[in-house]
Amino acid sequence: xxxxxxxxxxxxxxxxxxFVWAVRQVYHRTRAEIAEAIRHLIADxxxxxxxxxxxxxxxxxxxxxxxxxxxxxxxxxxxGGLFFVTFDKQASTVIRSQGRKSILLGTG
Length: 108
Known about the structure:
- By secondary structure, the protein is mainly α.
- The chain is 56% helix and 9% strand.
- It is built from five helices and four strands.
- The radius of gyration is 15 Å and the shape is globular.
């Protein structure tokens, strides 16, 4: 059986996070190019994903952040978290721009 014959293609959110990292680091693609690739991939009716968390990661990318940060922030809220705590200034900025609470930790 080949992938093309599969009834379902299960893709974990962690796999998508790794995909984004690899494509940015190795192939130097832009956020927009990567987001478009993910949207194209998940448009296939056979693909099974956690739609809410993937949409959150894509929205974070669209806002200038990193897919994984969007996933982490969404999962934290889904678990009941009230604040996104990070060392990443860009991630904190994106969170705040979306009207949510973020605590930016210092490195010193």
